[in-house]
Every structure is written in C-alpha cells, then in structure tokens.
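Re: beginner question about structure tokens

> Can someone show what the tokenized structure looks like for a real chain? I only ever see the sequence side.

Sure, here's an example I had lying around. Input first:
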Amino acid sequence: MKKSYIYLTVWRILVCVKVLYSVCSWGFGHATRSLPIIRKLKEEGNHLTIISSGETLDLLKKEVGEAVFIDIPDYPVIISEESTKLFAKGLIYGSFSMWRLEKNLRRISKLVEREKFDIIISDGRYDTYSRRIPSFFISHQVRIKNPFDLRLLEIESELFNLFFMRRFKAFIVPDFEGEENLSGDLSHNLELIDESKLCYVGPLSDFKKGEEHEDIDVLISISGPEPYRSDFERKIMDQIDGVKGKIVVTLGKIKEKGRKLSSDVTVCGYLSREEREEVMNRSKLIVSRSGYSTIMDLAVLNKKALLVPTPGQVEQEYLARYHMERGTFHSVKQRDMDLSRDIEMAKRASGIKVNWNVNKTVEKVFDVIFA
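And the corresponding structure tokens:
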C-alpha cells in the first residue's frame, strides 16, 4: 500500500471536514443511494450540512439524525405518458427550471461563502457547486434520454453535462465501467464526453445482502407519482389472486395500516429501511419500478425482478428496455401488465450476477473526494 494513501486515510479520519451535501428530491432514489456516503462522512466525525426538499428531506432527517438541514426546492420533474405532451412540457418548464437553477445557485453561493465549507458533494443537483471549493457531482445519467430517441437531443444533453463538468472537480458515476454495467447508454458509449474523465465507482445501495431464508415468493413494491401510482395499485390488486405463492405488497404509505388479504397475501402500508431490507432479502422475486436506484438495489441483493416503469418517465422506460434486452430482468408497460404471466416470465430472466459490497463503492468515492 502506498504511503501517500495511508497518510490520506489517516488525515481524513483525524481532521473534521465541513461538507455541504446536496440531494435531488425527485423521489427517494438519490437520497437512499447517498445515505451510505453520508453515514461514512458522519462516522468519521465530519460536519454535515444537507440540502434537499419535500419528503426527500424528511427521509434524510429521519435516517441521518444529527446534521444541519436546509430546505431548497429542486427544479420540477416533468412526466407525461404521451411523448408529444412530455416534449411540450419540457419546452414550457425548461426556462422555469433554468430560472430556479440560477436562483438556487445564488442562494447556495451565499451559504458557501458564509459557512466556509471544505467540500461540496451534489447528488443530481446542478445548483450546488463552487469554483473556489472542491465540488463533486454524483450522477448515473451523463446522457439524458428523450421520448423520441432523437440523437441530436441526446448530444445536447451531453453538452449540458459537459458544461457542468468544468464546474465540478469530478463526475462520480455509481456504476461499473465495463460491459457488465447497469446504466447502459445513460453513462456509457458517450459521444462528446471522454469516459476516462468519469469516475466509475460501482453501485450505491442502502441495502446489504443478508442470509435470510427466501420464504417470500413475490414482493410487490408500489410507488411513483400520481395518477400512475394509484393506477398501478389498482392493477396489482385486481390481478393478485392469480399469482401463486406467498406475496407481500408494500404501498409506501406511512398512514396506511397493514392488512391480510388472504393466508398468502400480506399488504404493508409502510416499511422502515430495516424492514424493507429484511423483506427484500427474504424475497425470491421483486415487482417494482425501474428507477436506477432500484436497479442498484437489485444488483447488490442479487434478486430477480419484474420491472414496470412509471409511464412517461423516459429514463425508467429506457432502463427497463435495456435490462430486458440483456436478459437480466423482464419488463412490461403498466398498461399491458398481466401479473401472473409476467411474473412467470421474470423468473426465467437471469438477474444481475455480481457479488458487490457497497463499502467498496463508498471507499472509491472517498478516494475521489479526498485525493
């Protein structure tokens, strides 16, 4: 082991570093994948200030505990099941998003100037950086997909990220570098960005593979924005009688009480992180959305899955298609889902065959940040 690496490791443990950590609030995915990094920063005695908003900020407060939390809203997420409407919304909200980004950047710049942070880490938020302080960006989406699959728009998205790459010291990609990657063209096979300048660190997940006996045949996780979430729940409940075996359904609703639909079907309103980790480890197959954080969870836990992308979320639709083509997971559109048929097809997929410890990813992230 190199002496410089040993000195660096000892220095980062002994010195209290002031860290500004900003988390995108588009769902819980950015927060859950950032938690292993945040916990390690806390464990080593660093001073943390965390920026996010809405339910994502509430989740971080619950999971992180002692830290400074600041509510700064994101630019809006744009969703529509119809491609033309999605494109039109993008044009309408685009200028508002840039205005919000500039407004947030001014506010955060004042915060950085006042608090004298040593390091800035941003998971998916382009409004959190400083040219005077080492700033690091975490993203699996270096190329942004569009509903029309237009190459020109994809190139423009690379240009957008290239612009911001010059403002961050490093772009950290939570994925593998080679062929056996999880994100496909979102962060590989790039045209304008030199992939050697990206820091591929491996998947980030807040879950760890356990030794639990797989006594649950199917775990169904219902999530996503309305009205698609409620439609997904209705379809699941209408078709669940046709599914064989022991089934657990999680609704993701804190105020909803759990109930038994039959001797084999249990519905849970809300599961804590520890309960969810246990139930996922006990499950033979998982039915869920195809967000990238879910893909990473499935990879770390070595689980088979049926992926049902949220309608209108282009990234989820791409990831579901990508893994279907590779044979790792089966996927189906929400409107076309036949639960019993698609679960049987999902059982025949390979799953992601990788043995990976998230601690290794966290160490790689720290090597980049504290280099």
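Each token stands for a local structural state, so reading them left to right follows the chain. The chain has two domains: 3-203+357-369, 216-347.
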